[in-house]
Automatic annotation (TrEMBL):
Gene3D superfamilies: PPM-type phosphatase domain (3.60.40.10). This is Stage II sporulation protein E. Keywords: Hydrolase, Membrane, Transmembrane, Transmembrane helix. It comes from the Bacteria. The chain crosses the membrane at residues 43-75, 81-114, 126-144, 156-182, 194-213, 225-250, 280-299. InterPro entries: Bact_Sigma-Reg (IPR052016), PPM-type-like_dom_sf (IPR036457), PPM-type_phosphatase-like_dom (IPR001932), SpoII_E (IPR014221), SpoIIE_N (IPR045768). It comes from Paenibacillus planticolens. Its EC number is 3.1.3.16. It is an enzyme of class 3 (hydrolase). PROSITE patterns: PPM_2. GO terms for molecular function: protein serine/threonine phosphatase activity. SUPFAM superfamilies: PP2C-like.
Length: 830
């Protein structure tokens, strides 16, 4: 199952085209299975060929550590083709320069026996493969030397060396073979894994030692072909690395080819330097490098042979399909293809995540609709049904034992029903209706008017109680519906945010990179997360120079000029690896700044105050200044007020509407405890881009705005949260100005002058008389005046929060750099 799905990834282009061409679902499935099977068979054939060459490969003319290591890894990764690979390795060992077939077969048998024993005890694991290979090689080789009585310190050393090489090669093959067995789940290899892959390919090439076609040596052709591929894909570093590794392994296999290491390394470096050209440029670089060293090291015959080998490698290189090079490039870190594959993968993840979030949003929206399905007609029909049930209950208890029942309800049903309805209406208006208040016409008609009145009053009490609880249930249903709708809206906004982050902003990133590099700044990566107006977010990783603040003094002003909006440094973080890089996040600079101050005291000088406050930036461009007064005093009241502020803050930070957040907070506080606990909430949401402020006052005292010599009071008539199941939330919106001072207080301060004084006028005068504009000094001064007014006695919990709104002045002005144009922002995803 895993092999087929990942095979489709490697053959993604071909498989995708075929699936789109098919109209029927069955035809697409059959076609997809065919493509997956073809890709799997192609890689299977390659692994079998590699097994054959590794079975023939030898180093130092007597060591063959490759085959068993390869077979051991195949046993754990592709056991279905183990017998094919084993037969191929056996055939390769028969064609080896030095016969080692018996050793190889014996080592494989010992390995399989040990492995089966481990499987029986459920101890089998891929991590044990290197130890098993080492043990099998060492035991077989040691036993063979003991049999022929030829054991010496030298032979023991060579046995140990071969066993250790087998162990190391097993570790290397574990990293490299999954590329061919289709068990990797994404196109990303570490540099270490790339090196392991190169060692594997170079080891396979040692199986072609002594293969000659005319003047051309196959191992030299393949090694230069491998250099050309990696030089084209990874540039000079990879070209030189492949040359060194391949030359080293080939020189171990053939001592006469030691010079190949320097020749291949130099050729790979020159070929990689010309990577920016095309295939012909890379081929020219390899031909030039191999020719120079061939002239220097070899005879005229060696020079000609090397030229023919290089031309053969170039021919194979030019005939290589582009799809193979692109596939290889996806695995090499740092290449455009690798970056694109990672970006495509991230985009697919974002799209899938956004789709799932939208589905959940729709689920919550449907649930909200299901709770709101009670229409007005349904309510009217239920009302009539409840009235009918009420009449039946009264008639059953009062009229069943009356001898005039048939006369009243059978012969004069309409008249009796009308009188009963009128009677119920009178009871609704006068719940304590007495027998003397019974209408005379009812006494003429009914034989038991007093008994009917008692039964009707009793049933009406039950009916009224049922109506109360049904109303509670309906209110709860509407609240749950509103909350589900709010959650749905939050998730929909999240899905839009995820989609918006998936926009391609490569051109804008390149424009910023070019501008910064022209200033001489070392920029590693630029990632634009958002370019929405007022919500800019750009992440830059750059070379950090100790002692210079390039981010705030150069980069941020330049970004402000390019984007056309004030940009500031949000946060800066040094990399822990100590490579001299730091990650800096730039965001939209707020147009206004808020400075706060708080002063408070507990009743009677106690340690715990029932008041709580919060001043926090919500993250959506709004700054919240909140104050809550719990019922009573002490630790319990403080816990209640802190809970109210914490829940409200989290709901607002999630993106929920203000009114819905207050209603949700109210329902939560009502359900938390059966005791009579409530808390006031006084919150000001200040928009830091335009200073528009929304006041949410739930049972709180008035707030005041000091603007120059004027003091403005803001009040609202709402009950505290946690008392009633349904509350009306009145939001007051007022635009603040630069220099305004906002004063919020609990009732302990507002009620300080007593009941005989106009509290609002008294507080306005107190605020007007305070000269300082610093929020903390303002709060301390106001609290001190309240203390003096009460002669140092603290009669209730007192807390005052003061906030001052100021127009933000950028620390550094923007500047224009020659050749830089204003950036075009992409359209926002709707």
């Amino acid at each position: 199952m895993q092999r087929r799905s990942l095979g489709a990834v490697i053959g993604g282009g071909w498989s995708g085209l075929w699936q789109k061409a098919k109209t029927g679902a069955r035809g697409a499935a059959v076609e997809n299975r065919f493509v997956q099977a073809f890709v799997a068979k192609r890689w299977t054939f390659l692994l079998v060929v590699m097994g054959f060459l590794l079975g023939r490969a030898m180093i130092l003319e007597q060591l063959s550590p490759f085959a068993l290591a390869f077979i051991a890894v195949i046993y754990f990764t592709r056991r279905d083709i183990l017998h094919y690979v084993g037969v191929a390795a056996f055939a390769g060992s028969l064609l080896s320069l030095h016969a080692n077939t018996g050793y190889l077969v014996t080592e494989i048998i010992v390995f399989l026996l040990i492995q089966k024993a481990l499987e029986k005890f459920e101890r089998s694991d891929l991590s044990l493969a290197p130890i098993l290979v080492f043990s099998s090689t060492f035991l077989v080789q040691l036993f063979a030397e003991l049999v022929v009585s030829n054991l010496s310190w030298y032979t023991l050393m060579m046995i140990t060396v071969e066993a250790l090489l087998s162990l190391v090669l097993t570790l290397i093959f574990i990293q490299a073979i999954p590329v061919f067995t289709l068990t990797r789940k994404n196109y990303h290899l570490k540099h270490e894994e790339i090196i392991c892959l190169i060692i594997l390919l170079a080891s396979v090439m040692t199986g072609t030692v002594s293969w000659v076609i005319g003047p051309v040596t196959v191992e030299h052709v393949l090694s230069r072909y491998l250099i050309l591929l990696f030089a084209l894909v990874g540039g000079a570093p990879f070209g030189a690395s492949v040359g060194v590794i391949t030359g080293l392994i080939l020189s171990l296999a053939n001592s006469n080819a030691v010079y190949q290491m320097s020749l291949l390394a130099f050729s790979g470096m020159l070929a990689g330097l010309l990577k920016e050209g095309n295939r012909l440029a890379v081929a020219f670089g390899m031909l030039l490098g191999s020719s120079i060293l061939s002239f220097y090291m070899g005879t005229s015959v060696d020079v000609m042979n090397s030229a023919w080998e290089s031309l053969a490698a170039v021919t194979l290189f030019l005939l290589t399909p582009r799809s193979l090079i692109l596939t290889l490039a996806k695995y090499v870190p740092g290449t455009q293809e690798n970056l694109k594959s990672q970006q495509d993968y991230a985009k697919r993840v974002r799209d899938v995540t956004a789709s799932r979030v939208e589905q959940f949003s729709e689920v919550f929206r449907q649930l909200s609709r299901s709770f709101k399905q009670l229409t007005t007609d349904d309510a009217v029909s239920r009302k009539e049904e409840e009235v009918g049930h009420f009449m039946n209950a009264v008639a059953q208890k009062a009229c069943d034992s009356c001898w005039k029942k048939s006369q009243c309800w059978d012969q004069k049903f309409y008249q009796t029903y009308t009188y009963m309805t009128d009677m119920m209406t009178n009871i609704e208006t006068k719940e304590n209706m007495t027998k003397k208040q019974i209408p005379p016409e009812w006494k003429k008609v009914c034989n038991k008017p007093e008994q009917v009145l008692d039964v009707m009053k009793q049933q009406y009490s039950l009916y009224k109680n049922d109506l109360h609880w049904k109303k509670q249930i309906m209110d709860s249903r509407h609240l749950v519906a509103d909350q589900l709708s709010g959650v749905s809206q939050v998730m929909e906004d999240l899905a839009k945010e995820i989609k918006r982050e998936g926009q391609e902003l490569f051109l804008q990133e390149e424009q910023i990179r070019n501008a910064l590099e022209e200033l001489g700044l070392s920029i590693h990566t630029i990632d634009i997360i958002s370019l929405d107006e007022g919500n800019i977010e750009i992440e830059i990783i750059h070379q950090y120079t100790k002692g210079f603040d390039e981010c705030r003094k150069i980069i941020a002003p330049l970004l402000s000029e390019i984007i056309g909006e004030n940009v500031a440094v949000m946060r800066e973080e040094m990399h822990e690896r100590g490579e001299g890089y730091s990650t800096v996040v730039f965001g939209s600079a707020k147009e206004y700044e808020v400075e706060t101050g708080v002063a408070g005291a507990a009743k009677g000088g106690d340690l715990f105050s029932g008041d709580s406050f919060s001043t926090v930036e919500l993250g959506n461009g709004k700054y919240a200044v909140a104050l809550s007064d719990g019922m009573g005093n002490g630790e319990r009241a403080r816990a209640e007020s802190q809970t109210a502020l914490s829940i409200l803050q989290q709901l607002l930070q999630s993106g929920m509407d203000e009114k819905l957040a207050i209603k949700s907070l109210n329902s939560v506080l009502m359900l938390r405890s059966s005791d009579e606990m409530y808390a006031t909430v006084d919150m000001a949401l200040i928009d830091m881009y335009n200073a528009n402020t929304t006041f949410m006052k739930i049972g709180s005292t008035p707030s005041f705005i000091k603007r120059g010599n004027e003091v403005i009071a803001i009040s609202a008539n709402n009950l505290p949260v946690g008392i009633l199941s349904e509350i009306d939330v009145d939001l007051v919106s007022i635009p603040l100005q630069s220099g305004d001072i906002l004063v919020m207080m609990t009732d302990g301060i507002y009620d300080a002058p007593g009941h005989a004084v106009n509290k609002e006028m008294w507080m306005k005068r107190m605020i007007h008389e305070i000269d300082t504009t610093y929020p903390q000094e303002f709060a301390d001064c106001l609290l001190e005046r309240i203390f003096r007014h009460h002669h140092g006695e603290i009669q209730d919990d007192m807390t005052v929060v003061v906030a001052r709104v100021e127009k933000r002045q950028p620390e550094w002005a923007t500047f224009r750099w020659p050749g830089i144009t204003r950036m075009e922002r992409p359209k926002t995803v709707s």
